[in-house]
Amino acid sequence: MHVVARTVAAVAGIEWAWAADQLEELVTAAGWIYRQPFEGTVSCTFDAAPGRAGAFLFGAEVTAVYLNLHESDGLGVPARRDLFVAAVSEISAQLGPPPMRCPGPDPSVGWWVAAGVLEIVDRAAVLDLWLRPAPRRVPPPTIPAADRRVNRAAPRTDHAADRPVDRAAPETDRATDGRVDWAGLEEGFAAAVASLVAGTTVRLESTAEQAPGDATGTLVELRQAEDCLTVRVGDGTETIQWPAAGQAYRTIAGNLVAVLRERAGDPADLVYRSALPVPHLPLRRA
To answer: Cβ distance 272 to 278 under 8 Å?
Structure first.
C-alpha cells in the first residue's frame, strides 16, 4: 500500500490519547520506521519509505504528527496548487470531501478522524500531511486601524510547522512604478488569485481618464469563499470550486488579462482595492 494511503488508513482507525508512549503504535500502523525520541526533545523524525515524517512533543504529550508529501521549494504558486489538489483528491478517495477548507497563501483542508484532525497544508517549501488533536489555529488576517495600507499584522505561528510564517508574501502591496507589463501581470495574477484568503474581495480599476468599468468603476471583481472563487467581469460571472488546480488559476489570469488589455489599454493605469494587501499581485493598492 502507498505510504499516504497507509498513513490515512492508520490515523482514520486508531484512537489514542496523544501520549508519547503511544507514538510507536501510530508510527508502526502508518508503516513508518520508528525511532525512539531522545529524552527532553521537542521533535523527532521517522523514515516514511519514501519520504520523511515526524512528531512534535511537549513533555509526555504529542502535539502534532506530520508526513512530508512533496518538496515544493522553487515551484510557482500554480504548480504548488497542482500538487495540493492531487493530494486532496487522493485522500478524499478514502475519507470523502474535506469538511474543513482554508484558502490563502498557505491553504489547507482537513478531515475529522478517530485520532483528531487530518490536514493537508500547502506551505511555501513543502506540502505536508498533518495529524493534530484539533484543527490548526489560523487567525483571520487583519490590518491595524491606524494603518490600513501597510501589513503590520504579527506573523502567524503555524502550529504545523512549529515556526512563524508570514501570511503576506514579499510582493504584497508593491507599487509597480509603471513597469509592469501584461505578461508579468498575467503571471502575478495567477499566483495572486490562487492565494486569496476566504472572505477576500478584490476589485480592479483603472486610474486613466474616461476609464471603463461598471457604475463603481470596477473592471474585474474577485470574491473568495471557503469553497469557491467567484469572478465577475461586467455582467458575466464565473464560479470556480475550491480547491482548484493550477491550470484553473492560469486560465483565469489569461482570460482576465485579455479583458483588461481590451478595456484598460495600459497595465500601468490599473490599481486594485481590497481590505488587505494581495500577495503576488503586481499592482498598486488604491
So the answer is: yes
